[in-house]
Design goal:
The strands form five sheets. The protein has a five-stranded mixed barrel with strand order 14-15-16-17-19. Among the domains are: 125 residues, no CATH class; 184 residues, Alpha-Beta Barrel (fumarase), CATH 3.20.130. The chain has 507 residues and is α/β, with parallel strands linked by helices. A hairpin with a 6-residue loop joins strand 4 and strand 5. The longest helix is centred in the N-terminal third of the chain and has 20 residues. It is globular and about 70 Å long.
């Protein structure tokens, strides 16, 4: 009889979540490297290089790959012969492991979970509770898969119920452009087919836990309909030309994973769940002998990537800018920015707008005139850091605030990730502002450019408080220029034409 002790499960969860915060799965690293080697788009190749460099830095420094350290998702296979030596429920043990992992002082992880989701949206402070899926299976082991899923990719999930005769591949290819770049491609698409509505979504999520193997599948050839569908979707999505970070390029998806389940004769439920460039999961098993710990990979598994942003970037002093100075910035141009910038995400934007609408002054230090705002919620720093990993969040969530802030505050620029919607682009054009992007999935690399950080407003918002950062040579790309030209529109359109008729393969 296998006896699983309470502390063994708690320590396993704690250790595993720390592990996946800074170690990419090696199969993912290798797939990303293959994408970098074959990428022909300079902008996309540069973005992939940053992701790979960031990945190695995190493995070396044991700091989070992404500032969004995710919502914890757990898949449990509980053996029918397992016995427990515990006073807590299985869910309570897992959540205690989550709490310990996210509050670890040596590598604190960002608490992103809010309760009362349609009301006060209070941060729980320790990233609990996890989302837990359990099955009782034959055997005397406890199988556990832990994943940390970022909000940017989770928000781009899609679901439909097709007619039985409809094409799954057609629907997926139709959906991907509308998902934009907020899921931080290149990544992995999880597809779930069949069952019921909730089952299809769960299948799509669970499929993402499998290793990247599309290149092996292509070499040996498909052996069933599901594998044929994986290959078809992989090729057709990459021919869209969306590319890394939505900038246009050869690789949008590294792999397509698929799980299916019998369904009603009248139905074909289909779900898409994307995994981003911060793919994080680990598979462990408890056998009653103590906690299970993942083995640390060798740093030799990471490629050496040459990257010199100074060779092709314009240096910009943020403290000397005005609306006139940004007019000649071109879409797709890379910049190294230095100076002071303010930060703000959803909650801060809401506070700013409400304050100004009431006719009240903003808190001291919150002067946006001729300044830039960075959409970021950083990880807490450890010793020697000005700030923890601090990559961009998805900018489209701030679109509804953009025109008001540009008109009322004198703001001239924004920094985030992914595309802007039509209304935000029009506001940027009308006010002569600009929108820049930093690379999603390169949070630790970005944080190295931040020399100092201080909270200037609403500290009670936690990671959504407004900071002032002083940065030095922070790498960014002009995504929307002052005329309203968006590289997220021009880049994919150009690369879709370039690769038309070329077979996109997994090498």
């Amino acid at each position: 009889m296998t006896v699983i002790k309470q502390e063994d499960l708690i320590q396993t969860v704690e250790s595993a979540l720390q592990y996946i915060s800074y170690y990419h799965p090696i199969d993912f690293v290798k797939a990303m490297h293959r994408a970098w080697e074959r990428e022909q788009s300079p902008a996309a190749r540069d973005a992939i290089a940053q992701i790979l460099i960031n990945s190695r830095m995190c493995a070396e420094g044991k700091r989070p790959i992404c500032q969004d350290t995710g919502i914890v998702t757990v898949f449990l296979d509980i053996g029918m012969d397992v016995r427990w030596e515990a006073s807590l429920s299985v869910e309570e043990m897992i959540n205690e492991g989550v709490r310990r992992a996210y509050l670890n002082p040596e590598n604190p992880l960002r608490a992103s979970i809010v309760e009362d989701p349609d009301g006060a949206r209070r941060n729980t402070g320790d990233n609990t509770p996890a989302v837990i899926h359990s099955r009782v299976v034959p055997g005397d082991r406890l199988g556990i898969i832990l994943a940390a899923k970022g909000g940017g990719s989770e928000n781009k999930s899609r679901f439909t119920i097709l007619n039985p005769s409809d094409s799954v591949a057609d629907w997926v290819v139709e959906q991907v452009p509308g998902m934009g770049a907020g899921w931080c491609p290149p990544g992995i698409l999880g597809i779930g087919i069949g069952g019921t509505s909730e089952k299809a979504m769960l299948l799509a999520k669970e499929s993402l836990m499998a290793p990247v193997d599309i290149h092996e599948l292509r070499e040996r050839g498909p052996s069933c309909r599901a594998e044929e569908l994986r290959l078809e979707i992989h090729e057709r999505v990459n021919k869209l030309g969306i590319g890394a970070q939505g900038l246009g390029g050869m690789t949008t998806v590294l792999d397509v994973k698929l799980m299916d389940y019998p369904t009603h004769a009248a139905s074909k439920p289909v779900a898409i769940v994307p995994n981003c460039a911060a793919t994080r999961h680990v598979h462990l098993q408890l056998d009653g002998s103590g906690p299970a710990f993942a083995e640390a990979p060798s740093l030799d598994e990471w490629p050496e990537i040459p990257w010199d942003p100074t060779a092709h970037s314009r240096r910009v002093n943020l403290d000397e800018l005005d609306a006139e100075a940004i007019r000649d910035w071109q879409p797709g141009e890379t910049l190294l920015i230095s100076g002071r910038l303010l930060t703000g995400r959803d909650a801060a934007h809401k506070r700013i707008v409400e304050t100004l609408q009431k006719g009240e002054p903003l808190p001291e230090g919150l002067d946006f005139r001729n300044r830039f705002i960075y959409y970021v919620g950083p990880v807490d720093p450890v010793e020697g850091e000005a700030v923890g990993p601090a990559g961009p969040t998805t900018a489209t969530r701030m679109d509804k605030f953009t025109d008001f802030l540009l008109e009322k505050t004198g703001l001239i620029g924004m920094i985030g990730k992914a595309e802007r919607g039509p209304a935000a682009i029009e506001a940027i054009r009308r006010h002569g502002a600009v929108y820049l992007i930093a690379t999603g999935g390169a949070a630790y690399l970005v944080s190295k450019a931040i020399r100092s950080a201080r909270v200037v407003a609403w500290p009670e918002l936690g990671m959504e408080a407004v900071y002032e950062f002083e940065v030095k040579d922070m790498p960014v790309t002009v995504a929307v220029d002052s005329r309203g030209v968006s590289v997220h529109q021009t880049g994919p359109a150009e690369w879709k034409q370039r690769i038309a008729g070329i077979e996109i393969v997994a090498e």
